[in-house]
Amino acid sequence: MLGIGLGVLYVAAIVLSLHGAARGDEIYHYAQIHLLRHGDFRLLDVYLTTIPGYHAAVAALLWMSGLDSLGAARAINALFGLAALAGFHALRRRLWPDTESIATAQLIALPILVPLCFLVYTDVLALALILWASVATLSRRHALAVLALSCVVLVRQNDVVWAAFLGAVAIWPTWREHGLARWRTLVAIGAPYAAPIALFLAFWAWNGSISLSHGQAALHPELTLHLGNPFFALFLAGALLPLQTLAGLRRFAEWTRARPWLIVVPLVLFALYWWAFHADNPYNSALPDFYPRNAFLQALDRDAVWRALAGVVMVLAACGLAPTKLRPREAAWLYPFAALFLAASWLIEQRYVLVPLVLWLAFREHRSRAIEYATLALWLALAVYAFSGIIGGRFFL
């Protein structure tokens, strides 16, 4: 019954998204799709920051179906959303059997994912490819994983980080058991994962910047690290998983009693956030009345009370979710790779949190059924609010 209900909501969201003006960056994404759909292969590289693999895929599907509208492109993107859900379900079933249904139901309602499923944005296709690549890696079908990861680079080139992550996941069991004694096996397993990285580096060398648009490159600088997105990710985790955070704090307290030095961790984390968090990308100050995210981020920069309250949520999330058991053991590599991926982006956006958060949701151990169903209810309410506001043009996240 839950599956039927969520399926009806998903179909209703597709129907509602068939009409209405372009929202956010849909203006640029659909303009590129429209050109390709009609055989015009010029690139709108003044506006697009990503390699147009997503745009070519949508244009091809529009051409094959005989459709040609923003609504049809949104419907195709919703199909990519279903592919992402299927990949997550397969991954969760492999790692935590008998929890895949409630976990996938939660993903359907994840507030930072739901609006993107019904808009012409690149994130959902990239997420689907990464999830299926993860399934292939854990199934030791490394050639399929590398193929999916190479496609990811053509959709969102900064997602190349996840090729390195899955490469680490692939080789770690052999490294843990045998070290360099099996170096030939390590090379045989890990070398193919260098292909998406090589593809990314070739694009970077050819284009001269990671951003396809040279005009946008200054706002998306490479080889710089910023703490805005890592801390924003902690805030979102704490806000979206309050019950899991509170349950984990008991475990963290036990750790602290056994290792008193751990009490320094939340203090250092809060101090680092207080002095190093800045939402200073120009795009993060645009239209705060229309972008609630920007209004919130500017409040953190200007209001000490808001900054302190958000910092408390971040610290509690870090301490409360850290004890969460992940499966497989090598999934712990997610933390350093997620930190690198998030810190590499100057612009603070919840879209950048999507892949590391969804992977963590796939790898994590669930809490009690009451906690997980309460989480589903919370996310569903937030998702409906976010979707209706964005499709209705009242705001954009």
Q: Give the C-alpha Rg.
A: 21 Å
Enumerate how many helices there are, as a single number: 19
The helix/strand order is HHHHHHHHHHHHHHHHHHH
The secondary-structure class comes to mainly alpha
Oligomeric status: single chain
| Count of individual beta strands | 0
Mean pLDDT: 97
CA(first)-CA(last) distance: 30 Å
Cα shape: globular
Helix content: 55-70%
Keywords: Endoplasmic reticulum, Glycosyltransferase, Membrane, Transferase, Transmembrane, Transmembrane helix
Subcellular location: Endoplasmic reticulum membrane
Membrane topology: Multi-pass membrane protein
Main location: endoplasmic reticulum
3D architecture notes:
This protein is mainly α. The protein has 19 helices and no strands. The protein has helices spanning 2-17, 26-37, 53-65, 70-95, 100-108, 114-117, 123-138, 142-155, 161-178, 183-190, 194-207, 228-240, 242-258, 264-276, 292-302, 304-321, 334-343, 354-363, 369-391. Helix 7 packs parallel to helix 18. It is globular, with a radius of gyration of 21 Å. The relative contact order is 0.13. The model has no long low-confidence stretch (mean pLDDT 97). Its main location: endoplasmic reticulum. It is found in: Endoplasmic reticulum membrane. This is Glycosyltransferase RgtA/B/C/D-like domain-containing protein. InterPro entries: Alg10. The chain crosses the membrane at residues 6-22, 43-65, 71-91, 112-133, 185-206, 231-249, 261-277, 304-322, 334-353, 373-396.
Condensed summary:
The chain contains 19 helices and no strands.
